[in-house]
Amino acid sequence: MSRRTGAAVKTGLGERAGRMPFVVMKFGGTSVANVERIRNVARHVKREVEAGNKVAVVVSAMAGATNQLVAWVREASPLHDAREYDAVVATGEQVTAGLLAIVLQSMGITARSWQGWQVPIVTDNAHGVARIRDIPGAALRTRLEQGEVAVITGFQGIEPARNRVSTLGRGGSDTSAVALAVAVKADLCDIYTDVDGVYTTDPRIVPQAKRLPKISYEEMLEMASQGSKVLQTRSVELAMVHNMRVRVLSSFTPPEDVTPVDPATWDRIGTIICDEDEIVEQRVVSGIAYAKDEAKITLLNIADKPGIAAAVFGPLADANINVDMIVQNLSADGKSTDITFTVQGSELPRALEVLKKVAAKLGAFDIKSSNDVAKVSVIGIGMRSHAGVAAQMFKALGEKGINILAISTSEIKISVLIDAAYAELAVRTLHGLYELGKD
Ligand code: ASP
Ligand code: MG
After folding, report:
1. In this structure, are residues 220 and 286 in contact, taking their beta carbons and an 8 Å threshold?
2. pLDDT value at position 5?
3. pLDDT at 425 over 90
4. Is the dihedral of CA 299, 305, 308, 310 positive or negative?
5. What b-and-e string marks burial along 162-200, b requiring 16 or more CB atoms within 10 Å of the CB?
6. Considering only the top CATH level, what class is 22-195+230-277?
């Protein structure tokens, strides 16, 4: 990927001196899990309003609500109309938005709830996995300018051609928040969640893991897609394209301990996801991610001739199965070879179905598969300019007796596939190796 410049579209707080910051605050499911927590959220909102900031709030459904709605839809009929699925699952956010508006009003704050269609948040027609196309939102903007707090349902929009409610896919309210922040030209998009930032790795595995004050969009994309589940990947892509600063912070930090968004102090808590040029102190490696939901497939004794890889991976792609790492062995006899690759664990049964059909067509080959694998990745923009990161990594894993089954790399990431039983040891080893626990 080429380096982005993006300087022309920067909307830094500093460049906006003289006017109060415009903040989008997003609260996830655990932050709004009950009315008491919604009251806590309202106190965060109140702090920003009292500081004079303009505020739009985006909310998720109460924790567990979306799962329950999805379960009901499946119970009603395993094969269901996608438009009606959206009609049902979009209701979770509607409840939270209304409740938060009520609580804010009870605190004397002018607030109004907005559903996706009311803003409107215009999407395409891919119901269940819709993409935001446009947020015209003139009325919303006027109300925000007048100082009214807008509480907006995340995760949903409207598909204009058929005038139907649409949803963005699980975890989509992060994307709603970033899209809104871009649309209203907010200074900052604050994503409140149940962790107080992005860490060098999962603190449950490595207690010495450190909160990263800043991380670049590209690193965050790798972290998000490599299994650290703080933000929906699509929200980070959107933020990167528009150079929107996103901050991840905890709604469980007492509201009075968070300073209102202010040019001087906005980077003191949480993790800011921003352009890499804004990160002064760069490390070679920023974080270690891991994913356990991986499956490995090996095709043995497959013909070694042109067109075979296409014959295998074409049908997998047609079936919408994402293939991640791929390794092909040198063939000893020049006639047959082995290919190993990975898919998401949950996709394994479907992938095997597809491969059986391919095998029938191509002439027999053996298929072996395993779910007991994990992917561990080392991520850092500093790798672009530093050699030897991979060599160090392989050496450290080897010294712990951890066997590497497959490797894949990008400019800023090295991933290895290993036995699932060693995932935690690998994460701890690599976190120590790159000294990520040190100040
Ligand atoms: N409530 C939706 C979900 O659970 C959207 C979100 O929370 O981001 O997927
Ligand atoms: Mg989420």
Report:
1. no
2. 37
3. yes
4. positive
5. eebbbbbeebbbbbbbbbbbbbbebbbbbbbbebbbbbb
6. alpha beta
pLDDT digits (tens, 9 = 90+) for 177-221: 999 999 999 999 999 998 889 999 999 999 999 999 999 999 999
Of 30, 65, 68, 25, which Cα lies nearest the Cα of 45? 25
Q: Does the pLDDT at position 294 exceed 90? A: yes
Tens of pLDDT, residues 20-49: 789 999 999 999 999 999 999 999 999 999
Domain with CATH 3.30.2130.10 in the chain: 287-433
CA of 20 to the centre of ligand 2 (A): 28
Question: Which residue, judged by its Cα, is nearest atom 8 of ligand 1?
Answer: 171
CATH number of 287-433: 3.30.2130.10
Written as six digits, the tokens of 152 are 């907006």
Residue 319 half-sphere exposure toward CB, CA atoms < 13 A? 19
Rounded Cα–Cα distance for residues 410 and 388 (Å): 14
Quickly tell me which residue has 């790795």 as its tokens: 201
Taking the C-alpha atoms of residue 410 and residue 407, their distance in angstroms, rounded to an integer, is: 11
- Ligand 2 centroid distance, CA of 188 (Å): 18
Q: Spell out which residues line ligand 1, taking CB within 6 angstroms.
A: 28-29, 60-61, 66, 92, 154-155, 170-174
CATH 3.40.1160.10 positions along the chain are 22-195+230-277
User: For the whole model, what pTM was predicted?
Assistant: 0.86
